[in-house]
Write a structure and sequence with these properties.
Largest sheet: none
Shape: elongated
Structural class: mainly alpha
Number of helices: 6
Helix content: 55-70%
Oligomer: single chain
Order of helices and strands: HHHHHH
Radius of gyration: 24 Å
């Protein structure tokens, strides 16, 4: 068993060096996560573009790039539920209303 694993590792390395990355990953039982990486890259591209447009006072264009539905609190969620969903359940939040 160990000899087979050793041989497979070096065979996969040879395929990787030859540019056959997918074949090498299949030999080693590695499943690529291209879709997940692409989703993360798309997220950053959209949001950095939105920040750039917002800084240039092009707010309508910034809103088009930003995915507001992902960041907005649904109407039926409490503040505690919303904070828990976005990973801030342990953070103490205080808010109030000030009139001018």
């Amino acid at each position: 068993m160990k000899r087979l694993n050793f041989e497979t590792t070096f065979a996969a390395a040879a395929f990787a060096e030859a540019g056959e990355h997918e074949t090498a990953m299949k030999m080693m039982g590695i499943t690529p996560v291209y879709e997940k990486v692409r989703q993360i890259a798309d997220f950053f591209e959209r949001h950095f573009a939105a920040v750039g447009f917002a800084e240039a006072c092009c707010h309508e264009d910034a809103l088009r790039f930003a995915d507001l539905n992902a960041a907005c609190k649904p109407a039926n969620d409490s503040l505690d539920t919303f904070l828990e969903k976005v990973g801030l359940g342990h953070v103490r939040v205080c808010y109030g209303v000030a009139s001018a």
